[in-house]
Amino acid sequence: MECRRKKENKKSNSTFPDEVLERILGMLKSRKDKSSVSLVCKEWYNAERWSRRSVFIGNCYSVSPEILTRRFPNIRSVTLKGKPRFSDFNLVPANWGANIHSWLVVFAEKYPWLEELRLKRMTVTDESLEFLALSFPNFKALSLLSCDGFSTDGMASIATNCKNLTELDIQENGIEDKNGNWLSCFPESFTSLEVLNFANLHNDVNFDALEKLVSRCKSLKTLKVNKSVTLEQLQRLLVHAPQLGELGTGSFSQELTAQQSSELGSAFKNCTNLHTLSGLWVATAQYLPVLYSACTNLTFLNFSYAPLNSDDLAKLLVHCPKLQRLWVVDTVEDKGLEAVGSHCPLLEELRVFPADPFDEGIAHGVTESGFIAVSQGCPRLHYVLYFCRQMTNAAVATVVQNCPDFTHFRLCIMHPGQRDYLTQDAMDEAFGAVVKTCRKLQRLALSGYLTDLTFEYIGKHAKNLETLSVAFAGSSDWGMRCVLDGCPKLRKLEVRDCPFGNGALLAGLGKYESMRSLWMSDCEVTMNGVRLLAKQKPRLNVEVIKEESYDTQHAKKVYVYRSVAGPRRDAPPFVLTL
Questions:
Q1: Rounded CA gap, 422 and 84, in Å?
Q2: Which end of the chain is more exposed for a tag (fewer CB within 10 A), N or C?
Q3: Could you cite one Gene Ontology molecular function of this protein (predicted)?
């Protein structure tokens, strides 16, 4: 490796020796900074190449593993994303692709020292997990988020063979949960675990094995269990691991004796380092008070699986003066959000999820009133995901006036095409207020009845926007033209069920090569339009997903992305690459 480095730098005029420059550049944390310094000159390019230890790939088809390993020979940590985000909404068929195995085969040869692998929306089989566990002797961290294709057998392979494992984080995956015995596969001598998350598994786990594992791993900082773990069992785990910083509890609804309740409260009280709390599956109000003593230093509460009512939430928030992030279900209603505004002055992120997005006759939920209440009491709020059943232009304008530093604004009015329910106007002025006021805005999700005026506002004012998600909105191709022409930093554009056609698609001819991806589904794009795009921009991968009732004229689902690897080699028959 040293010979290769010297050969590459034999004409170097750098002020610094190669090793010093590599050490300096290796200290950079930002991916953008690393990419920028590699463009300064050839010497800096090579130094950054050799010093890079981690890499993030936002689309697994934007580059091949062979190209990656040639570009960066010394990688220890890989973060890789696969399927488009709309796969979360079942818009991407099964067996679409994004299989990790071909990457692992190359990594085994080129990165045998690989330590971390973080995957999102990738297909991961049990065979791949076994290959991973056997091929990288110093492997330490595995994170799988929204992945599919594997079972607890694959997790057993990781537990059995990864002797230096510090992190096993399994979140929201399509996993086949065969049984809970995989936890017993960790060797009795194994003590290195720092992060363990299996919150979304469904079956009972081997609690004896879990308890022994937790008691052995004295450096454990994050523990998130599934809902099969009872309150009594949780108490025993907390006694073994009072050092926890992040805790995801199991079910919070069993019957406890007074003594058991007291012991559970004491166990929480001893967790003085706790800053993140989640889980609380089917929380019962009578046991929530055991949490109060552990709430003092909490910065993140995730109640997305706990349909609390407003009173229970309010009683808990009184004890959380340092809260910065809060995820709740809309069962808290506006009254609960009023409590957020009253007790959480440091709040920076709020996510409100629907208890049942498909029940149109549901009585509870949140409205513009709760949104305003939060904005009045939480001036630092800069990230919001807000599912509601009604909204007004004036309310959104008030929210952003109170909180002008939004970087992420995702408003989801659950009835498609809904107008301002008080004035019956389009919701154009609401999102106009957002982009005019929030100059730091990076991500925006639109909803409600919107005309092209909204997109004109976005193109004119949202100069820092990077990701835009649009559904059931717009009047004509002009709207999308405004966005593509006016947002210089746009990287991801996601569009579904909109009246945008070929004119809108082709408006981005000069833009798509600087973006990560474009997704358009159920719009008015034709195959002729897509073919023209592919012909004029051969460096883009232009794919059409064919449905069972495939229309040879209409391109129902179009996925466009830049790639240095060319067309992908594993496209299934229902993916047409142009």
A1: 36
A2: N
A3: auxin binding
Q: In 270-354, which ranges are continuous DSSP H helix?
A: 310-317, 333-343
Counts of helices then strands in the chain (DSSP H, E)? 20, 23
Residue 272: CB atoms within 10 A of its CB come to 12
Q: How many CB atoms are closer than 10 A to CB 417?
A: 15
Give the separation between CA 164 and CA 326, rounded to whole angstroms. 33
Torsion over CA of 431, 433, 436 and 440, rounded to 10 degrees? -70
Give the pair of three-digit tokens for residue 27. 């200290």
CB atoms within 10 A of CB 83: 23
Give the other-Cβ count within 10 Å of 221's Cβ. 18
What's the CA gap between 305 and 281, in Å, rounded?
6
Integer angstrom CA distances of residue 118 from 78, 146, 421, 455: 6, 11, 43, 35
- Beta bridge partners of residue 302, listed in sequence order: 327
Cut 0.85: pTM above it: yes
